[in-house]
Every structure is written in structure tokens, then in C-alpha cells.
């Protein structure tokens, strides 16, 4: 455990809500609008945390458990990720599987909470959330697998640490494919366009938004923060893949996280303003494409 | 179609001249006329003596620009037209609800707006009425689920209930229940004096102010034999096209918003505002209230105002061309819109659809061309059609109509003919007459049918909004589609709840 790992974790926990705001702000800028202030998510979180919670009588403990599990899983996953380009707070051989599993656990609870409300909207949202996960999770595993093959490491700290710079020299094609694939997985996991539409108010078209429709007050605040953190984790994973920082001085490696995350958020905003959202039946096509790309990256390293 | 009545858009005919047929002959005549390419503009009942209701059908022969009126006297029931003439299905449900007359053999006899009868003939006791009673259609099965949306929605829109029978993401059936906005518009138009009637007409559908008040005035002017000056006619035409322009721009922008294509949504939404501001310039109200009045228009358009409007319209045209090129040429947009909510030309003919919805199925139906009135008799606007009948075609038809309305306005406004803006209206209307005023509103054909009594008072004021024809198109377009496409499909029709609910 090092100071730089703690510093990087603290940084990402603080700036996570900025990412969706920055993506939204980019869309607004590109469409000739001003957009919401960057600090608005913090105000929203403060407002929500100050409110009381209302629970439907049809819901059970699962519904109340979901926010805690979603946030807890994301926090532990954040601890596994080498955010400073060296190693995470905790790291062990095969921790990449724990990383993916923790995010899946959060998703599972979100889907169960959606089903728990008995609402047909949320049932459909849960079905979509889990249905698309069956395509995005294999893609994520193939991405992590290709990274492991390219670097010869089995922990996230190794894959994104010092061996990564050497891997870029040895296997640039694999890593480039991994990066693109990871970018697509990010769009799906962070519920961004063209997979999802974070700005919509139309329940029938929602994927992620509709599963949290019945949560209010602090629960909603925690879920919103949790999904922003998930966005930030994938952005950090993507930034870490393209930007090996193990050889940099520690303060610089931590500080570089900030512009790297901002760049990812801006790119997401650019993608969202450049194209319409996919119809739902085409989302699996996109995610399968991402998985195929990562698989090709794996194949290139197997000999 | 029979010859002799000589009924045309905004012409009045003596009520006794409207043939009163036996019910079987009436059915046959309506069914034959629609089978031969005719169209039911309106079908309604009016009380006609103790325990008797007169059914009146207004039929249109669009190819010849002629209208026809037929009637039949019925008592408590009559054999329904719907099994052989599907486009009358909602009209017959409406007759059952308003007049208490049962169309026997109607396959889908459910309430339309869920209100007690308001046009019952004397001597008939109303049946007990339960507003909440509505027999929903259900499909049973372990793998099926039901999704209810509304009447309260997540946006600032009107109330309506949509109930889906779905298999996973696939819609098997959609039932639409409306009536939450029912205000008794027809009864009000029949009972209130004209000074209030014009305000009621402007409020039938808040986004079709010009369209409805134009039809309302058209009916009144036909019954009063008032001739409007060419200037008044041109100003009214400009106001109607501005309303169309604003709504179509807003609609294409809203379609872009639904598919999360932000650039077009932002630009077109702003251009809609620009057109509403132009209506504000003309009338003092962004939705055009207060401009169109019986006999002409309440305000003249000075030359400098016309010139300023044209300059602003030129800017709208330049910006729209850029935004539309970007929107319609984007592959992801085309991929998203193609094949969503498909209607066929034959389905369109069966359901009697109107407006851009019909024109997007390659059915060139446009009151401005088929039954021209006012300025449209001199300044012809080509009818825009598309082939595919899907959401994409409905967007393309709107694009073409935006272009043509802009051309019309930019041509007309600088060259408004001379004349007084408003002619005086006589105190009394012609007694015992029937008139039909049709307007091509931005959603399609708006029809006001008026029958006067022996003293020149209003005996029946029948309003048919285009949405009344077209809601069944939305229900017909959804089965087989994805439930997540419903908001987009709905937006591509953009129908009025208030116009339907009256």
C-alpha cells in the first residue's frame, strides 16, 4: 500500500461525478447549448443525501440493500484497480476476475431491486441490463485476458503496471484492439450513447435509468454516485491501458489521471453527439463486435 | 357517388336537401362510396324528434374535390357499418357514446371518451354510466407480460393510457385509451354565443389554434354568406403555414431527441421557437390566438412587418437546410428510423388516415390540394409524399412540407393583396342549412360540420380533429415492433389528445 495509490483512489472518488457532467457538457457544447454547470452533480448529491427515503410497500429488503451493495462493490473494485499506474490498494493474482465479478454483483443487485418493485418498466429494465451484460461481460473478460497475455501478468497491478510499457513495444496491435474494445464496453457499462441515453425521460427506452426509477433520496444519490464511479473506473482502465505511467514520478502519475479521465469523458460526449442511439436489438451486435476485437487481440498473442 | 347536392368545402346546402335514407340504403351508400375510393370525413348523430337520432355521413371524393352528405333516421340501434367499412369504427363508437344509439354488430364497441351521452334525443333515458369501466383487451400466456403507460407521463405532455401486451421486447398488441381531456367542446360550440365560440375553437387543440379557428370561421362564414378580402385570405394562409412550420420543425426535432441525436434536436427546437415568435409578431400570441376572426383577421400585416418576417424566414430556411442535411444524411439516424412503425397504403385507406401520416404511405391526401379554400385556390402548394410508411417517411414528409411552407410564406408575405382585413358578419346565420369546413392543419384534415336550426341557431356543431382518424394508425403500427421503439413511433405521429378528446 503506497501513498500514491491512496492519493489516486481519493482523487477518483472525488472527481467521479464530474465525468457524466463533463460528457453532458460536451454534448451541449457541440449542439450549441451551454449545458448544466460541471459542479451540478455535487449539488444534486448533496440535495438527495439530505432528503428522506420513500419505500413502496411492495418492495422488500433487496430493494433497500441494492444501493449499499452497488456502491460497496464499486468501492472495492476501485481498490483493486492500479489507479496510479503502479498497483492498486489491494492486488493479487487473478484479481481481474474479482474486479469483473464485483461489478457484476452490483449489476445483479440493481436488477433484483428493479424486479422487487413489481413495476413492468423496471422489470424490462432489469431484463435489458442483464441481457446486455451477457454480451459486455465476455468482452470485458477477453479484454482482460488479452492484457494478461500481452503483459504476461495475471493481476491488474501487473497488467497495467511496469510490464505494460514493454507490452506496447512488443504487441501494439493487441493493445490497440484491447483499447477500442474496452472503449465500447465502457459505453455500455457506463450507460452512455449510443447504447443507452442518459438524458431520456422515456421509460420504455431506458436501460440503466429505469432500474433506479423507484429509488429516491439518499438511495438514489448513492446509486447515481455508484454509476458515476463505475464510469470513472472504466475510464481509468482505458486511460491506464493507453498511458503506462509506471516509470513516471508518483505525483505526476496520479495527477495525470485527471486529464486522462476528462479526455475519456469528452470523447464519450463527442461520440454521443455524432450519432443517434442504436435500436436495442443492435446493442448486442456492437458488444459482440467489441468481444470479437478483443478475441482477435487474444489470438494474436497465442502461439 | 350521387350527383346533385353540390356540397363542397365551405359551401352551405339546405338541410332538407340532404337525403334521408332508410338505414340499409344509408349503409350501402357509405360502404359503396368508400369502396370506390371515397373517404368518411365525419359521421355523427343529431337528435331528430322524440327517441329518434339522425345519422349524418360526410363523404369526400378527393379526386374530384367534391363532398357529399347522407343521412338516415334511427332509433335505439342500427346495423353497424364498421364490419364492412373499418374507417367508421371510431365514429360509430362515438355515436354510441354521444347519442345512445347502438351500432349493432360493432366488433369493438368500447367507450371513446368515457362521458355520459350529451346528444341524447328527447324521451330516451340515459343508461347508467361508469367512467372507470373499460373492458381492456388481454392476451393470456405464461411468457407474456402487460405494460401500462400513463395516463400521467414522465414529460410535460397530455394524458393518455397505453396498454401493451408484450412478449419480451416485442409488442403483440397496443390498446390506447383516451378521453382524459374531454371538455364537451361540441356542446359548448352549440350553446355558447359566437364571441365565446371563437375562443373555444382556438382551444380545441392548443397546438392547432389556427387550424381549428380557421375551420370554425370557415363554417360560420359559409352560413353567413360572407366574402373575405383576398388580403384576409392570404394572411390566414400565412398564419396556417407558420403554424405548420413551427409544429413540423418541432416534430422532426423531437424525433431527433427521441433517438438521442442531440445536434438536430437542439437546432430544430430552436427554429420552432423562431417560427412561434413570428406568429407572435403577426398576432401577439406565440400560438396565433386572436388573429383569425369571422370575416377575416383581427390585425392587418403592415408592409414593414411582412418584410421583417421574410428576412427572418430566410434565416430559418438557411439554418433548416443545414440541420436537415446533417440529420437525414446521418447513417445512424437512417438506421434508427427505417422500418419503425410501418403502415401500408392499403391499411391507410382502410383506416381513413389523413395528413402527413397518410402522405408518408404514398397516399396524396391534402385538403389544400383536394378541396382548396381561401388563398390555396390561387397559390398551390405541391403535396409532399413518401413511399415507405415508416417513421423515416413521416420525418421526410415533414421535411418536404417545411421546405414548401417556407417557399409559400416567402412568396406570399411580400406580395399580400390589397383589401380590408376583416368583413362584417351579419347577425343571423342562414336557417336550416348544413355546411362543411375543411382545413389542412399540420396534423391533417380538420373538419367542422355545422347544421343550423329553423331560426338560424346552431343545431349541431361536429368537430373532427385529424387525431381522431389517426390514433388508430399508431395502434396499428405497433404490433410486431419493439416496445422500446414506441416513444419514437408515437413521436413520428405526434397526435393530439385534446383534439381527439374534445
TrEMBL record, chain A:
The chain crosses the membrane at residues 65-84, 96-115, 135-156, 168-188, 222-243, 250-271, 283-302. It is found in: Membrane. One of its GO terms (cellular component) is plasma membrane. It is a multi-pass membrane protein. Keywords: Membrane, Transmembrane, Transmembrane helix. This is Hydrogenase. It comes from Eiseniibacteriota bacterium. The lineage of its organism: Bacteria, Candidatus Eiseniibacteriota.
UniProtKB/TrEMBL annotation, chain B:
Residues 269-421, 431-498 form the NADH-quinone oxidoreductase subunit D domain. Pfam families: Complex1_49kDa. GO terms for molecular function: NAD binding; oxidoreductase activity, acting on NAD(P)H; quinone binding. Keywords: Oxidoreductase. The keyword Transmembrane helix does not apply. Coiled coil: none annotated. It comes from Eiseniibacteriota bacterium. This is Hydrogenase. It comes from the Bacteria.
Amino acid at each position: 500500500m503506497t501513498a500514491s495509490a491512496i492519493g489516486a483512489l481519493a482523487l477518483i472518488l472525488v472527481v467521479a461525478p464530474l465525468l457524466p457532467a463533463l460528457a453532458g457538457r460536451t454534448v451541449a457544447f457541440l449542439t450549441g447549448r451551454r449545458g448544466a454547470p460541471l459542479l451540478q452533480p455535487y449539488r444534486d448529491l448533496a440535495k438527495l443525501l439530505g432528503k428522506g427515503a420513500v419505500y413502496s410497500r411492495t418492495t422488500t429488503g433487496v430493494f433497500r440493500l441494492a444501493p449499499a451493495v452497488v456502491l460497496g462493490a464499486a468501492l472495492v473494485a476501485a481498490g483493486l484497480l492500479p489507479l496510479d499506474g503502479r498497483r492498486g490498494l489491494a492486488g493479487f493474482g487473478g484479481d481481474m476476475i474479482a474486479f469483473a465479478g464485483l461489478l457484476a454483483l452490483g449489476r445483479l443487485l440493481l436488477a433484483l431491486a428493479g424486479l422487487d418493485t413489481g413495476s413492468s418498466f423496471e422489470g424490462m429494465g432489469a431484463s435489458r441490463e442483464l441481457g446486455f451484460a451477457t454480451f459486455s461481460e465476455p468482452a470485458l473478460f477477453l479484454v482482460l485476458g488479452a492484457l494478461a497475455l500481452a503483459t504476461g501478468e495475471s493481476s491488474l497491478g501487473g497488467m497495467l503496471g511496469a510490464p505494460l510499457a514493454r507490452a506496447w513495444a512488443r504487441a501494439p496491435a493487441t493493445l490497440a484492439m484491447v483499447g477500442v474494445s474496452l472503449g465500447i464496453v465502457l459505453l455500455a457499462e457506463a450507460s452512455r450513447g449510443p447504447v443507452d441515453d442518459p438524458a431520456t425521460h422515456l421509460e420504455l427506452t431506458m436501460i440503466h435509468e429505469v432500474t433506479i426509477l423507484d429509488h429516491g433520496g439518499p438511495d438514489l444519490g448513492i446509486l447515481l454516485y455508484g454509476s458515476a464511479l463505475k464510469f470513472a473506473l472504466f475510464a481509468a482502465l482505458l486511460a491506464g491501458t493507453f498511458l503506462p505511467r509506471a516509470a513516471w514520478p508518483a505525483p505526476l502519475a496520479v495527477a495525470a489521471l485527471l486529464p486522462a479521465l476528462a479526455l475519456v469523458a469528452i470523447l464519450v460526449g463527442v461520440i454521443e453527439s455524432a450519432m443517434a442511439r442504436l435500436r436495442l436489438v443492435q446493442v448486442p451486435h456492437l458488444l459482440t463486435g467489441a468481444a470479437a476485437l478483443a478475441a482477435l487481440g487474444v489470438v494474436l498473442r497465442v502461439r | 357517388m350521387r350527383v346533385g347536392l353540390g356540397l363542397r368545402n365551405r359551401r352551405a346546402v339546405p338541410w332538407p336537401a340532404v337525403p334521408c335514407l332508410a338505414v340499409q340504403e344509408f349503409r350501402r351508400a357509405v360502404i359503396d362510396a368508400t369502396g370506390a375510393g371515397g373517404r368518411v370525413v365525419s359521421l355523427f348523430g343529431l337528435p331528430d324528434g322524440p327517441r329518434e337520432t339522425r345519422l349524418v355521413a360526410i363523404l369526400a371524393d378527393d379526386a374530384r374535390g367534391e363532398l357529399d352528405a347522407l343521412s338516415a333516421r334511427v332509433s335505439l340501434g342500427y346495423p353497424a357499418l364498421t364490419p364492412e367499412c373499418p374507417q367508421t369504427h371510431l365514429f360509430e363508437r362515438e355515436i354510441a357514446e354521444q347519442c345512445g344509439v347502438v351500432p349493432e354488430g360493432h366488433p369493438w364497441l368500447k367507450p371513446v371518451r368515457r362521458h355520459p351521452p350529451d346528444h341524447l334525443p328527447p324521451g330516451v333515458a340515459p343508461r347508467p354510466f361508469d367512467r372507470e369501466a373499460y373492458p381492456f383487451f388481454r392476451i393470456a400466456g405464461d411468457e407474456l407480460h402487460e405494460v401500462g403507460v400513463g395516463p400521467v407521463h414522465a414529460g410535460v405532455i397530455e394524458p393518455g393510457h397505453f396498454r401493451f401486451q408484450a412478449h419480451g421486447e416485442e409488442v403483440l398488441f397496443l390498446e390506447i385509451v383516451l378521453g382524459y381531456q374531454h371538455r364537451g367542446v361540441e356542446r359548448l360550440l352549440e350553446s355558447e354565443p359566437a364571441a365565446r365560440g371563437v375562443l373555444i375553437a382556438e382551444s380545441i387543440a392548443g397546438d392547432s389554434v389556427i387550424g381549428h379557428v380557421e375551420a370554425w370561421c370557415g363554417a360560420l362564414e359559409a352560413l353567413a354568406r360572407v366574402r373575405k378580402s383576398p388580403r384576409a385570405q392570404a394572411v390566414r394562409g400565412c398564419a396556417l403555414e407558420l403554424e405548420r412550420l413551427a409544429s413540423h420543425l418541432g416534430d422532426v426535432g423531437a424525433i431527433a431527441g427521441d433517438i438521442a441525436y442531440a445536434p438536430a434536436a437542439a437546432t430544430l427546437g430552436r427554429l420552432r421557437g423562431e417560427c412561434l415568435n413570428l406568429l407572435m409578431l403577426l398576432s401577439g400570441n406565440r400560438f396565433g390566438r386572436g388573429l383569425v376572426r369571422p370575416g377575416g383577421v383581427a390585425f392587418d400585416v403592415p408592409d414593414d412587418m411582412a418584410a421583417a418576417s421574410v428576412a427572418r424566414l430566410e434565416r430559418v430556411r438557411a439554418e433548416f437546410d443545414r440541420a436537415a442535411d446533417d440529420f437525414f444524411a446521418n447513417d445512424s439516424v437512417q438506421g434508427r428510423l427505417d422500418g419503425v412503425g410501418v403502415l401500408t397504403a392499403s391499411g391507410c385507406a382502410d383506416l381513413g388516415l389523413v395528413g402527413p401520416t397518410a402522405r408518408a404511405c404514398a397516399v396524396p391526401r391534402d385538403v389544400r390540394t383536394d378541396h382548396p379554400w381561401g388563398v390555396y385556390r390561387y397559390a398551390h402548394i405541391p403535396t409532399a409524399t413518401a413511399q415507405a410508411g415508416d417513421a423515416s417517411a413521416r420525418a421526410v414528409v415533414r421535411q418536404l412540407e417545411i421546405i414548401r411552407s417556407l417557399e409559400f410564406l416567402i412568396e406570399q408575405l411580400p406580395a399580400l393583396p390589397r383589401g380590408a382585413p376583416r368583413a362584417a358578419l351579419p347577425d343571423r346565420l342562414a336557417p336550416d342549412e348544413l355546411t362543411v369546413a375543411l382545413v389542412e392543419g399540420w396534423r391533417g384534415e380538420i373538419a367542422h360540420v355545422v347544421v343550423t336550426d329553423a331560426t338560424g341557431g346552431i343545431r349541431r356543431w361536429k368537430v373532427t380533429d385529424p387525431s381522431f382518424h389517426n390514433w388508430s394508425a399508431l395502434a396499428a403500427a405497433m404490433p410486431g415492433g419493439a416496445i422500446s421503439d414506441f416513444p419514437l413511433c408515437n413521436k413520428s405521429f405526434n397526435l393530439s389528445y385534446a383534439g381527439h378528446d374534445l
